[in-house]
Amino acid sequence: MFGLQVLKKSLASIGYRVETADSAAKAIAFMDAESISSFDCVISDHHMPGMSGIELLDWIMAKDNTLSTIIITAEEEKEIIQHSLRSGAVDFIQKPVKQSELVRSIAKAIENTHNKRRLAETQMGVKEASRMNQIFQAIHAPEYEKQLKSFMMPTHDVGGDFMNIFSMGDGKVLFVVGDVSGHDVRAAFVSAYFQGLVRGLFEMEKKSVVDDILPFFNRILSEEWNNAIASDFGMPTSLGVYVLIVDFKARNLMLTSCGLPTPAVVTNDGNILFIHECGHPLGWFADDTFALKTYDIDNWGSLFSCSDGLEDFAKAEHINPFTLTYHLISDKKTEIEKKVLLENATDDVFTMRFQLNTEAQAADLPQPVFYARYTETSLPQIDDIHHNIEMNLHFLFENNQYRLFDFLTCCREALINAIKYGCKGRKDTFCEIKVTFIESEKRVRVRIDDPGEGHHFDPLTEINFYEESEHFSLGLAMMKNLCDDFRQERKGATVIFDFVLE
Hints:
Helices cover about 40% and strands about 25% of the residues. Helix 3 runs parallel beside helix 4, helix 5 packs parallel to helix 6 and helix 12 runs antiparallel to helix 14 (about 475-480). The strands form four sheets. Strands 4-13-12-9-10 form a five-stranded antiparallel β-sheet. The chain has three domains: about 5-130, 3-Layer(aba) Sandwich (Rossmann fold); about 135-360, PPM-type phosphatase domain (Phosphatase 2c, domain 1, 4-Layer Sandwich); about 365-500, 2-Layer Sandwich (Heat Shock Protein 90). A hairpin with a 2-residue loop joins strand 5 (about 160-170) and strand 6 (about 170-180). It has 14 helices and 18 strands. It is elongated. With about 500 residues, the protein is of the alpha+beta class. It has helices at about 5-10, 25-35, 55-65, 80-85, 100-135, 185-205, 210-235, 310-315, 320-330, 335-340, 380-395, 400-420, 465-470, 475-480; strands at about 40-45, 70-75, 90-95, 150-155, 160-170, 170-180, 240-245, 250-260, 265, 270-275, 295, 300-305, 350-355, 365-375, 430-440, 445-450, 485-490, 495-500.
C-alpha cells in the first residue's frame, strides 16, 4: 500500500521537505498557492480521486516544464507507463514501491529539475541580453539613416558585435562600433553593459567617449572584471572598439580604433584607402591612452567597416572581404540568401557602409568589390591570382561574359607590370589592386598602384608579341583597346581602367 504519511516520514528522515495531497486537485491548489517553482520533484500515483496522475502531469508540464514528475503505477499498466514518459515524466515506479528505488529516482529527478532550470535561466539571460542589445543598437540619429547600410548576424542567439550611432547636433554624428571577445552570453552582457555605459554617460552626462568612457571601461576590464573572470574561467574578456565622429560642416572625420579591423574609405573617383592603424583592444593594458586622429573627407565618397568575424570567414571561404561586404549590404540578395552564404561562419559577422558624400546618390558612388596587395614574390602565383579575381568578381559580368575575359586580361597584365617593375624585386614592397563598381553606370573600375617611380611607357606603343608570349602577356599597350577607359598617374606607377557593362 502506497501510504502518503509513511512516504512523507521516510523522505523527511533523509533530509527532504515533503508536502502531501490526497488528490490531484488538492495538489494543484497547493502548488499554485506556494508557487510551483519552489518544488523540485512531484511523485504521483496514477490512480487518484478525480484527475489521474497523467492529467496532473499534463498540468505540471503546462505550468512549469522544468519540474520533474515521477509516476507510480501497477506492474501491468504498460500503456500508462508509455503515456507518462511521452508526456514528460522523468521516471515511473511500479508497485509495490521499494524505498531504495524511490530514493534513487527522486535524486535523479531533482538533478534533472535543477539542470533544466539552469538551462532555462541561461536561455532567459540570452533573450534578455538580446533584448538589451536591440534596445541599445537602435539608431539615435534618424537624420543619418539614409546614408547608412549595415548587416549584422550573430553566430548564436546573441553576439558581442554592436554598432551605436548618436547625433551630436550641428552636423556631427558619432559611431561607436565594437566586438567583444568570445561567443557566449558573457560576451553579450559585456556588449550590453558597454553600450549602456556609452549611452548613459554620453547622452546624460555629456562625457567624451574617447577622453572619459574608453579609459574608464578599459580600467574596469583590465583591473577588475578580468581579474575576477580569470580566477573562475581563465578566459579574460577584451573589447575591440572604434569611435568615429563625422563632422559634415567642417568636412572632417575623427577616429580612434582599438583592436578592430582598419576602416576603409572609397574616394569619389574609386580609390580605396585604409585610414587608421589599429591599437590594442580594451582590457589588455590598464594604462592605454586613446586619441582621435583627424582626416579631411572632401574627396571621400563612403566609409566601410567590418568585424574580424567577417574577415576570418572571408579568408576561410576564399572570398575577398570587400566582395563579401558588397553582397551582404546589397539589396540584390534576400536575408535568407545572406544567411545561407554565411552558414559556415564561426564568429559574429558585421559590416557597414556610411555615405560621406551627401551630394550624390549612393548608386552614383563607387562601391568596393575587391582589394588585394601582392609582393614581388607573388609573380609565380599569377595564375592563382587571376583565378581568385575571377572567382570573386564573375558575378558582375553575369550578363557580359564576353567582357570577363578582357577584364581579367587587363588585371593580369597590369599586375604583372606592377609586380615586376614597381616592386623591383624587394620583398618589403607591394602593389595594390582596387576594384570598385558604380551601380548607376554599371561601371567596373580597376586601380593598380605600385611603389615604383614610373615606367615611361606609351600605351599606344606597338608591342612585340613574340617576346611577350611566354606569359600570354598582351602588355599595357593592348589594355587601351580592351577596356572602355584607360589612364595612368605617376608616370604609370598607377594604372586605372574602366569596363562599362551593358
